[in-house]
Write a structure and sequence with these properties.
2 copies of one chain form a homodimer.
Chain A lengths: L5 E5 L7 H10 L4 E7 L18 E5 L5 E5 L3 H12 L6 E7 L7 H4 L1 H11 L4 E6 L12 H17 L6 E6 L9 E4 L4 E12 L5 E13 L5 H6 L2 E7 L9 H5 L12
Parallel strand pairs in A: 1-2, 1-5, 2-4, 5-6, 6-7, 8-11
Antiparallel strand pairs in A: 3-4, 7-11, 9-10
Helix pairs in contact in A: 1-5, 2-4
């Protein structure tokens, strides 16, 4: 573990979320922990770089009496603040979470938890995103203790092996007692099935407004995928990259005859 | 062109941006155009799904006298509002832009322009993102006329060939007079080089605040990449997908011995 001295802990639910505290407490067993997390919930916020306003950082006390820093930026802003030099310490690893809801399939580009880890690899620091494998209908409060222990074990493994440059890990942990988790699967991104509906309402002044409503997303629990692994009771570890190129489509698109476009102003 | 009857035009710079108007005007030559764009600038906003507040939609008049709709949501929210049923018309294609600054390499997950097209393919509608191949030091105002004509030609080509499911196109157009554009290249995502620095300031009340500053990003103009194509004077068309799995890493990670994790609470 000699290479991981300082771990930055962040999340997308805000600094006071219980999932962040559980994660930070386990990380403290293996490294120095620095917390810089948003001052509010940024779920579904995507990969943000705040350029149109300045950001503030302030100190808060968490419920276990420890100190954390919070900013009015998004999760990815918190990571950029930390990695661009807010701290004197060199950050060796960024961990994000533990998110109370699974980040599976297409969730990854929306997810503040995952995009925090994306921001880490932009600045060439390994990034790990942790989520419970639950959906948003799960009864509260959630118990993060098993997931936090697994998060620590994943970090220890990562420290031993070193992540390759440009790769982040998206980790979803079944919401089960530790002894009921069957093991770990290295997975590919599966298929998320969104079931949003547009909920049209009228305010007391007669004006329309709109909620994204509908049921929580489901997924296709295929063998080899994140969705499948969590559904079967395994920890899912998906290696992700920021190269979104659909390589298989390049030859096909090339055959469309783009090289001699008929360029005219009509 | 019979398949593309209704085109949704959106952007991340806000409904009054000249790039949107130029794009909408060219699209009107080939289809019915519906505009639903944010009421403010959302550059660098990422892939957003606004769930914590309702969204409003209102009508505005653009500078050419035509009518557009605007919402207080992000670009991807505008797309979701449209595709989840705000309009009676069936939207056949979503086009986003024209962004005044290039969206190359790692920009794609940050970019409101590109994430609008991502949202389209989530709902199984083809999505195209258009950007000028400039950086943010370019003198204003910009002339979008060449780029808009090329955007129309790309849409016409797309209508002929049909995009495969799950694929969006990220199109960057060199900022050159039409006759100086050399042609079109189908590219992979290249390497963006960010040069952000943390700019620490003190407000009139003695409290610190932080800007992300530094120079505009550059890129490595490799052959075959988006960065390389635009630098060489070609329109860059990059097919993108929402599967971020780093497939090449799955076997390596599997060899780390995850299958029998030592699960203990200590």
């Amino acid at each position: 573990m000699s290479e991981i001295k300082h771990i930055l802990v962040t999340n997308d639910d805000g600094v006071s979320a219980p999932g962040l505290l559980a994660l930070a407490q386990e990380m403290r067993k293996i490294a120095n922990v620095i917390i810089l997390a948003p001052d509010r919930n940024w779920s579904g916020s995507g990969h943000v770089k705040t350029l149109d306003r300045p950001l503030r950082i302030k100190e808060v006390t968490l419920s276990d009496g420890t100190t954390a820093l919070t900013s009015d930026g998004a999760p990815s802003d918190c990571v950029a603040l930390a990695l661009l030099g807010y701290f004197d310490e060199k950050i060796d690893l960024v961990v994000s979470g533990i998110n109370p809801i699974a980040n599976l399939g297409h969730d990854v580009t929306y997810s503040g938890t995952v995009t925090a880890a994306m921001e880490a690899i932009i600045w060439e620091v390994p990034g790990l995103a942790f989520s419970l494998g639950t959906n948003d209908n799960h009864p509260q409060p959630l118990d993060y203790s098993s997931a936090a222990i697994i998060a620590r074990q994943v970090v220890e493994k990562t420290a031993l092996h070193k992540l390759q440059s440009g790769m982040l890990l998206n980790i979803n942990i079944p919401y089960l007692p530790l002894e009921q988790i069957k093991g770990t699967r290295i997975t590919r991104q599966g298929l998320r099935v969104y079931r949003d509906r547009l909920d049209r309402r009228v305010d007391p002044r007669g004006r329309e407004y709109f909620w994204f409503g509908g049921d929580a997303p489901t997924g296709t629990p295929e063998e080899g995928t994140d969705v499948g692994a969590v559904a079967a009771g395994y920890v899912s570890i998906t290696p992700l990259q920021l190269d979104l190129t659909m390589y298989s489509a390049i030859p096909t698109l090339g055959d469309w005859g783009w090289d001699n476009p008929q360029i005219s102003s009509k």
